[in-house]
Design a protein that fits this description.
Strand content: 5-15%
CATH superfamily of the largest domain: Transferase(Phosphotransferase) domain 1
CATH architecture of the largest domain: Orthogonal Bundle
Distance between the termini: 48 Å
Structural class: alpha+beta
Helix content: 40-55%
Number of strands: 9
Radius of gyration: 21 Å
Number of helices: 10
């Protein structure tokens, strides 16, 4: 598909268009449509005649190339072939998983039920670690060709420069923000220097508890990983640190439980412990730019009314100062 022919926004993505798009794939909708909680893309539960509902994901225009989307779909299908519990994009008879209707690109998925995992349970964390280790073992087999790397440049320097070039930071806070974000990026660079040359593999990329659904019974009991939309190349710790929370001691215990399962299937490089707070810092910088770049989307203005206020940027300055201090602390355990 010619990327220049894609729509610029979701403004023309009406319920009728969504139903017609799903119908165009040979799925006969019965007219019932439920918008699900998603901001980067538009995601709907679509009722199908005489069959379970499907999930239709319409990709944000201008974000990923067709090749990058298909590459992510292929990675998830590789995981399915290894019987790893993920939710792949459905393929048609020709093997295609990315479809287009009136310029909007979309994919269809089976609906996956489940609840949030019990984050305080060591057995649950070990189970999660076991499957993330299996994901990483597959992810290490070959690199992405069309998806970028999570690193200080793509998640730090680029979003910082974009924010400063587009005048989002209030003028009276600009000197403080410029100073603290540079100190933060210097701290990130120091963490990466301490970590040294760590392996880069295909990742989930956004592996927080909201992207894990847990089933309690049946042959598929346990975690199911969903939404690989942010999948990129990066260090394996990227898919682990977002599962940690609480005090330093609590995070040490949680990571220990996760690695008990993880290392059954993939070797953990201890030097990656230097990257935990660095990656958290990069995510904070990237998140501000992510919101700013989508601020013309009415859904963002409604969902994030606190963004781009004086208080928002004051809080980000304080947050980055805290991260600068955290990046100077020793890793969770000696490396």
């Amino acid at each position: 598909m010619n990327e220049q022919t894609l729509p610029q926004s979701f403004s023309d993505l009406s319920p009728e268009l969504v139903l017609d798009a799903v119908d165009s794939c040979g799925m006969h909708c019965d007219g019932r449509l439920l918008a699900l909680n998603s901001y980067e893309n538009r995601v709907y539960q679509v009722a199908i005649d005489d069959a379970p509902p499907l999930i239709a994901k319409f990709y944000r225009p201008q974000r990923w190339t067709d090749e990058a989307i298909v590459e992510e779909h292929q990675f998830v299908h590789e995981l399915v072939e290894q019987e790893i519990p993920v939710v792949p994009a459905m393929q048609n008879a020709e093997g295609a998983s990315l479809f287009s209707y009136q310029g909007y690109r979309f994919a269809l998925f089976q609906r996956q039920s489940g609840r949030a995992p019990e984050v305080g349970d060591p057995a649950t964390l070990e189970w999660l670690g076991r499957f993330i280790g299996r994901i990483h073992a597959v992810g290490a087999l070959r690199p992405y060709a069309h998806r970028p790397v999570i690193d200080p440049h793509t998640f730090g320097t680029v979003p910082r420069d974009w924010l400063l070039a587009h005048d989002f930071v209030p003028s009276d806070l600009l000197p403080a923000y410029q100073s603290v974000v540079q100190q933060a990026l210097d701290g990130v660079a120091a963490c990466y220097d301490r970590a040294g040359d760590v392996s880069l593999i295909r990742l989930h990329g956004d592996c927080h508890m909201g992207n894990v659904l847990w089933l309690d019974q049946g042959e598929q009991a346990g975690p199911h990983f969903v939404d690989f939309d942010d999948s990129r190349m990066g260090p394996g710790i990227q898919d682990l640190w977002m599962l940690l929370s609480g005090s330093r001691q609590e995070m040490q215990t949680q990571l220990t439980d996760i690695l008990v399962g993880y290392e059954d299937f993939y070797e953990f490089e201890p030097r990656q412990l230097y990257l935990i707070e660095a990656l958290r810092t990069l995510r904070l910088i990237h998140y501000s730019a992510w919101l700013a770049q989508r601020w013309t989307d009415p859904a963002f203005i409604t969902a994030f009314p606190w963004f781009n206020t004086q208080r928002y940027w004051q809080d980000r300055i304080l947050e980055l100062r805290e991260q600068i201090a955290l990046m100077e602390e020793p890793p969770l355990w000696p490396v």
